[in-house]
Amino acid sequence: MKRAFSIVNETWKRVWSKSLPRGADKRREILLWDDLEKWACISDEEIGGMSHAKLQTSSETTLFHGRLSTNTPAPDSTNKNRMKYSGYCAIRSQPNRGRFGRVKLYDFSQYDALEFRLRGDGRKYIVNLQIESYRRDDLWQAFLYTRGGPFWEKIQVDFSDFVLTNRGYLQDHQMSFSREKVRTIGLLLADRINGPFHLELDYIKAIQK
To answer: At residue 124, what are phi and psi to the nearest 5 degrees?
Structure first.
């Protein structure tokens, strides 16, 4: 009887472990912040702006830091390609690609929120989710408010908090996004406050609440 129960128990464990997404644990989590090489760091410097940003490891954590500037370069004599607005720094995961270069999407259909363990600078960041769609400029965005100071904090951003934007503009027609079709995840700083920023990240997870 005990052996039969043991066999059933072990079988159930194997079935349960296979039913969990890869990288999940008993709390039904997906660890998203696992490979620095899969994340890109960008800023308006790439298009002629004056902000700059870096993404680098610091001991056992990852550091996103730099300086945000809303200043724009002076126009040249032809006044062509003049920048009217500037001031953003961002990091973004690269699309996961499988065989034949096909994009492997994140499936968050069984999850309720993203959880960040971070040490912030008191600034307001934006969480970006890009969904597989024919409109590549669409982003679902939600605010991420950080505290300043030396202490770590955990912040949960519910998927229900995300709103649809396109090229930075809030869309009149709002809809819930397809949680099983998340292409990339990112963080954006564009709070129009000139000066240095500093965001230390321990992990990003998709969680059930």
So the answer is: -100, 120
Pair type for strands 96-97 and 182-189: unpaired
Domain span holding position 89: 32-207
Question: pLDDT digits over 116-135, tens only?
Answer: 999 999 999 999 999 998 88
Q: 116-120, 158-162, 174-178: which has the minimum mean pLDDT?
A: 174-178
Q: How many domains does the chain have?
A: 2
Question: What is the Cβ-side half-sphere exposure of residue 8, based on CA atoms within 13 angstroms?
Answer: 5
Of 118, 132, 106, 103, the residue nearest 189 (C-alpha): 118
Q: How far apart are CA 16 and CA 6, in angstroms?
A: 15
Q: Give the pLDDT band of residue 1 (cuts 50, 70, 90).
A: very low
d(CA 150, CA 152): 7
Q: Are residues 199 and 171 in the same domain?
A: yes
18 lies in the same domain as 39? no
39 and 128 both lie in a single domain? yes
> CA–CA distance from 29 to each of 32, 84, 90, 185 (Å)?
9, 42, 24, 16
Q: Are residues 81 and 142 in the same domain?
A: yes
Tokens of 7: 């066999």
21 and 48 fall within a common domain: no
- Asked whether the beta carbons of 151 and 119 are under 8 A apart, the reply is yes
* Domain match, 79 and 6 both: no
